[in-house]
Amino acid sequence: MSQLAGLTDVFNESQDGLQSHGRLVKSLTKIYNRVTLNEFWDPFLHHLKYSLIIFKQEPAVDRTLEFVARFVTSFMARPGGKELKKDGCHSDEEEAQELPPILLKLFSFLLENHDANSRAVRYRVCQLINMLLVNMGEGAMIEDQLYDSIFSCLLVRLRDKFSVVRAQAVLAASRLQDPTDPNCPIIKAYLFLMNCDPTADVRRAVLSSIAPSVLTLPDMLERTHDVKESVRRLAYQMLAEKVHMKALTIAQRIRLLQDGLNDRVGSVRDTCASRLLQAWLRYCSGNALDLLTCLDVESSADISAQAMESLFKKAPVTELLSNFDLLTDEHVVALDSITAEKVFYWRCLCVHVKSLGTQAEQYLDQLLPNVTAFCLYINKVFEKLKGMSDPEEQLTKDFVMQQLLKLASVLDLSDEVGRRHLSQLIYDLLVDDQVSHTLIEPLVNIYRELYLDEMAFIDQLVTVISDVRLPMSTEVKQLSEDKQRKVDIKLAGLRVKLNELREELDECVETEDFSRAAEVKNQLKEVEMNRSLLLDQSKPQVVQISTAKSDPTTLLKCMTVVCEMLQGVHLNTLIPSLQTLCETLILPGVTSGEAAVRNMAVKALGLCCLLDQDTARTHLLLFTQVSQFDLETVQLTALRVTFDLFHLYGMEAFLNVVSNDTARQNESGDDMASDEAMSEIEAMMSEMNTGVVDDASTPSCAQSIIRFLIGLLDSESCEVRSVVAEGLAKLLLSGRVVSAKLLSRLVLIWYNPVTEDDTLLRHCLGAFFPIYAFASVANQEVVEEAFLPTLLTLMNAPATSPLSEVNINNVAQLLIQLTNSHHLVKCHGLSVTDITQSCCHDNLAVRVCNEILKDPNSFNMRVLCKVLTCLEMSEGNNSKLKELKVLAKNLLDEVKDRQCVKALEKFQQTVKQLLRATVVRQSVNGVTSGDDRAHVTQSDSESESPMQNDTCISSTASVRRTGRKVNKMQTVSPISTQDDDTSVSDAENSVFSEAQQTPIATPTPVATRTKRTTRATRRKPVRDVSNPRVNLRSQINAVATTPAKNK
């Protein structure tokens, strides 16, 4: 038709760029006005269908759909158009604005074909619906019937089996959600997809579309822990743009900064610092002090300091100094306006400027006074804050003093006079009763900087401890009444005698008897001297005495000083001063009635034991008793000390120490564990290459303590379990303990549902297993030894045991991965020949086959038969392969279960192919024996089913790929085998249909506990578009948009 001329040119030109769409909309509007809607619709839809069949991401297609959406929605804003009423707009009382007929017709077409068989059509339909809703404007309103149709359509597409379709449906449904309705189906579907969808793009689409509310905010915060860094990065971005800081609690703010600024991916850290932190700073009007107040700097000093450092890096030093107006002319914060936030910001800024190096040294003079002036300032601050008695004010005082003392480390200590003043200040603060133990750490750190010599440093702190515990006091002593009376009588006699001598002296002078006058004068001096002595004796005397203080506050302070002192020394033995402290202060503190004092005493004693092996041997049993009978806090400290001693000195250092207490318990029959547990420990100890001599009557200290520590893995306290599991894992990793049974216990405790909430234990063991197994061949052999005992324990677990809920297949898959020798090649660069000689999977195959032959008809044998199909045997181990061939034949004769027989047949074929490949390779090298050729001939002559022959291939690598493909096909639903994307399960469909929320899935630790499979479906060919711009005229005229019956 001549009236529709130019329609094709408009669609072709719309692919070039968005800048021409405004002109093209006017051109297409002119064409639209010249004809009726029905005449215009068919050619318009014909050109639109070309874009709807393209699944590949093409910018030209996106621009075409954007042009179509802009065109059909342009009639809503054009007053006087033939699709609008004359008034052109709706009032607040109207229910909905009348939509243009072409827009309604396009919506109708899209909703009719949203369930088309082609994934491209479904994807483009959702994309176009999203564009239409966006271009309709913010205040657009639609009829309820159309709303319900779009609503139902998008709910169906939200559970499409293709992730790209789900992502576009999420974007399209964003304007249909109602954050005020707690039962909104769109919101519930969003929450499900955000937490449970396996595709990161879908989770990202939900994050960018979901509206923040009380219901959705916890799930948005949870996405900051997503396994994909792109999702975590977008989560921080959306929280910065959509969520006000006041909508978050202080704990949530601190957790966001802690996780974001310490993320393992740099882009996530940058997003948290540049987006989230900057947004919060804007909410505080650019005032960093208000931001610190919102973060509660007193309870989150570390993460607040990290946040300040991130902000300082974004600004030049000159700008930071020009905006810093908190200091007086003396370069200190005014005493009348000092706060925790000001002092903290001052300290962070000084630390940042000093970290810049020599080019910023001149700026420190503008921020800090000299050392002497700073010491006087700290004294003034301490005297001002000294009178605070309220507990909250006391905490604020301690925090301010901590920041000031940490600020002292930034000062220039090259001035000798300043160093002496600072040393005297630290001493005065340490011995002051008003200084709590929380200030000990910064005070000792300053002492360590002042006294670089370790012996001088220790001597100074030993003197401080002595002065704190034995302070000098003055006492006024007066004479008793009897003594005072006697002194008074003597003084009276001397006064009488003095008067007599003076009179006699006068007479001698008058008579000019000078010789006698001289004698009287000497007597007079002697009497006056005696009188002076008596007067001195009668006066009160001031005496300095030292009194030992044993109150809990003083003991805790002294213990803290000892711990801080010992943590930084590098001695090889206990010097006499430390031995004296250990005997007079630390050991009595272990028996103190205060738990805090006992805890610090145990820690201090442990540090002493780390310096001297004999001291460790003496007090090891004491740590064991403390970890058994004391409070949980003290128990944890004693357990950490015990593991540190074993890790430092090794198990052999404690073999000759006999536990008298344990021996007495054994004699009285009051032992902690049963005879079976004792035998288990003895067997485990025999696995260690430490030369332990098993003697039930006098068990060694190492045996008793290891038995006790393993028993704590079943403790009711999650913290105790975590500390013990971490300690045992460290001993295994360092080689101090070599035990397959212990490794099996750790695997079981990791999978035990009881430890599901022990996040620290789960992550610690999850990181430990792969590091340990792939560290050496010997470690993989230990995992091999633990393989069958672990699986058999789970198989034989009673129904009442939590282990009965563990998925045995997942455990088997983990252990198979840990014993895979190819990981050793990747981690250590070993050659295949190096690991062939000790291939764990070959040995495991023999062990598993023998275990199946013990009870071939057991139900649990299905797991072991499946394990055989997952093992990757080595090709060069000819003797093992021959043995496995015989075992496979015996298994097929004994096992009757159909599923097991199928797995065993697959295993048999794998063994045969490996044997054939080995013989072929040896024949090429000319080393094939007659026995090997006989085995190959026998294998070829055996009858096999056609299916088995089809799956046989000639290379080891192909066998492994085929094996994984079969496993995958057994577990994938029929729908998943038709296309190449992830589908939502039936359980998810029921959740969508019922619009119910699903709990957040716990992220898998480092060593994943889920079965690893590979994709087994064949990808469909994708159309290759050589030209980046899709030529719509070259496409076919008909578009297959037939709805599928079962979608």
From TrEMBL:
Superkingdom, according to UniProt?
Answer: Eukaryota
| Gene Ontology, cellular component aspect | condensed chromosome; condensin complex; cytoplasm
What Pfam families does the entry give?
A: Cnd3, UVR
Question: Where does this protein have coiled-coil stretches?
Answer: 484-537
Q: Where in the cell is it found?
A: Chromosome
Which species does the entry assign this protein to? Ridgeia piscesae (Tubeworm)
Which family does the UniProt entry place this protein in? Belongs to the CND3 (condensin subunit 3) family.
* GO biological-process terms attached to the record: cell division; mitotic chromosome condensation
Primary localization class, coarse: nucleus
Q: Which PANTHER family match?
A: CONDENSIN COMPLEX SUBUNIT 3, CONDENSIN COMPLEX SUBUNIT 3-RELATED
Q: Does the keyword Mitochondrion apply?
A: no
UniProt-recorded name of the protein:
Condensin complex subunit 3
- Which regions are flagged for Polar residues bias? 936-959, 968-977, 984-1000
Q: Which Gene3D superfamilies match?
A: Leucine-rich Repeat Variant
Q: Which UniProt keywords apply?
A: Cell cycle, Cell division, Chromosome, Coiled coil, DNA condensation, Mitosis
Residue ranges, compositional bias (Basic residues): 1009-1021
Cross-referenced InterPro entries? ARM-like (IPR011989), ARM-type_fold (IPR016024), CND3 (IPR027165), Cnd3_C (IPR025977), UVR_dom (IPR001943)
> What positions does the domain Nuclear condensin complex subunit 3 C-terminal occupy?
557-872
All copies of the UVR domain together span 497-528
Map out region (Disordered) in residue numbers: 926-1026
